[in-house]
Amino acid sequence: MKLIQMTVKGISYSETQTGAYALILSENEGNRKLPVIIGGFEAQAIAVALENMTPNRPLTHDLFKNTLDAFDINLKGDYVVADSIKNIEIDIKKNEMVSEIIYDKQLVDLVNDNIKKISFWILVISGFFAIIAMLLINSSLRLSIYSHRFTIKTMQMVGATKSFIRKPFIWRSIKLGLLGSGLAIVAILGVVYYVDGIFPNIGIAKDYISIGIVVAGVLLVGILITWISTFFATQRFLNLKTDDLY
């Protein structure tokens, strides 16, 4: 997920909360704006920076920023992960001048836990619908083979081998699988470019490796499902006796 860079456009008094202010953020490559409710002290500090005013003494955040600049420390949102932060903490503690490192561990853990939960349920729901799709495809192919059960048995009675009988049915099913996969890929690409048009900063359409993996996966799954379903469906009727066909 790509982060969206935003710029502070201004501060206004909050009409919903007494003694609070609204910080107006605007995305750099778009027209969307995001209001964030902040307190009076935070609003005063941001207003001083926006107006390029110099206070009589450094404020708390000024001292913190000066400390970061002195040690050449730059903050990046990509490292808001428990493992990455832990590694950074270990590296910083190697410096003899650092005695203790304090940060909001609970917030970082909460963000990571929520991301894991959301990813897990998305995976579960996707797997559920994938199983339903496979069952529907399998049922459709079995019904198609069932309608040709007398043809299969007739070919077997005149001496055709099982592999020879299965071949046209499997090839036909694979072509149907390729057609279905092609339609699914077109739909996926349409959704990807539609989302990219609404949220261009995410860059989802430029992730060619992930798109290629998804396209290849859809094609492979489409071929495998149709091939396996057709193979076992034809095998069932090839092993039946003539009287059982009725």
Question: Would you give an account of this structure?
Answer:
62% of the residues lie in helices and 9% in strands. The protein has 246 residues and is mainly alpha-helical. Strands 1-2-3 form a three-stranded antiparallel sheet, covered by helices on one side. The chain is elongated. The mean pLDDT is 80.
- The helix fraction, in percent, is 55-70%
Helical element count? 7
Structural class: mainly alpha
* Mean pLDDT over the residues: 80
Key words describing this protein structure:
mainly alpha; 3 strands; 7 helices; 9% strand; 62% helix; 246 residues; 3-stranded antiparallel sheet; elongated
Q: How are the elements arranged and paired?
A:
Blueprint: E1 6-13, E2 21-27, E3 33-38, H1 40-50, H2 60-70, H3 82-93, H4 105-146, H5 149-157, H6 162-198, H7 208-238
Antiparallel strand pairs: 1-2, 2-3
Task: Produce a short descriptive summary.
α4 packs parallel to α7 and α6 packs antiparallel against α7. It is built from 7 helices and 3 strands; from the N terminus they run βββααααααα.
